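P.,

For your records, the input lines for the assembly:
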Amino acid sequence: MANVPAVRNERSRQAILDASISLIDEFGYDKLSIEAIARRACVGKQTIYRWWPSVGAVVLEAATQSLDPVVTFPDTGDFFADMRSQLVGIVKLITTTGFGAAYRGVMAAGQSDSGLLEAVYREVIEQNVTAFRARASVARERGEIRADTDVATLRDILYGVIEYRLLHGMSLEAAYIDALLAVAFDGAR
Amino acid sequence: MANVPAVRNERSRQAILDASISLIDEFGYDKLSIEAIARRACVGKQTIYRWWPSVGAVVLEAATQSLDPVVTFPDTGDFFADMRSQLVGIVKLITTTGFGAAYRGVMAAGQSDSGLLEAVYREVIEQNVTAFRARASVARERGEIRADTDVATLRDILYGVIEYRLLHGMSLEAAYIDALLAVAFDGAR
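Structure tokens returned:
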């Protein structure tokens, strides 16, 4: 056995994360295994098992490397316009990087792995909830949204519907974000 | 080999569907197999393979047996109140029957089986889209929702967010439906 250090080696870590994303792109999440990731990243399987408990955990970390678009909220003074920029950024992240396929795989695995689902909440959703709440709070103080708006539910709607469409393989584009914001901000009646 | 008729035997069919739901309840979707369903339903594996292409297809048919709450839209003359009844009915279906666990399993399998995902669209979502559009159209004529409301997006919001919370294992209750309807109908600003 090679003498592998207990502390994560940054180059190996990055090779493992990159390998998992490229393998998903090429073969799909369901074909992914620790063995395949190890081979592609040129590391031993034990190196992966030492740092991550499961394939899902590797992929979750790979997916959350590029979470900036999910957690960064611009503040130009116009909440509606800023939300549009932020949501279009997420759609771009989903449709132009490995994030979409990786997130779909993690959510699939999470349906029978509650620990993984909790990690998704902690690593992805909770970050977004916190940042959204702060940005919405400023918007409320400025009178851009009503004082009685349920901010948690507004967030569920904006991000939940994007995830719903992602998991169903439905199209996601900027025009859809406009339709979504129109209902969420102006209501149906 | 037993001489199995090509036409579906209704009693066997029901036994197979019931077996798949009870096995998911007991052991989880990821432990489900054609073999386990066959054993529980007291039928041969070939009987199942003759009628369904995969475990996911069996479970989708089991889940969609009780779709009445998803596709039946009351019309008491009050669209908002009727939507509340309909959505509370879906939450009840999810939380008190095997539908929730079965749907989660099918969506998990669908992330690496595009045929199954298309079947979910055809058997579940499209039915709901059609029935919702008809009910919303009456509401629009009566002036209960604005003429410029994007009805397809309104539907995505109401059902997509429920599915989002289901797949993340988040709580679903009638009070949440009230918060959801408040944003969707009255908007955040």
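Two observations worth noting. Residues 179 and 185 of chain B are 10 Å apart (CA to CA). Chain B is about 70% helix and 0% strand.

Regards
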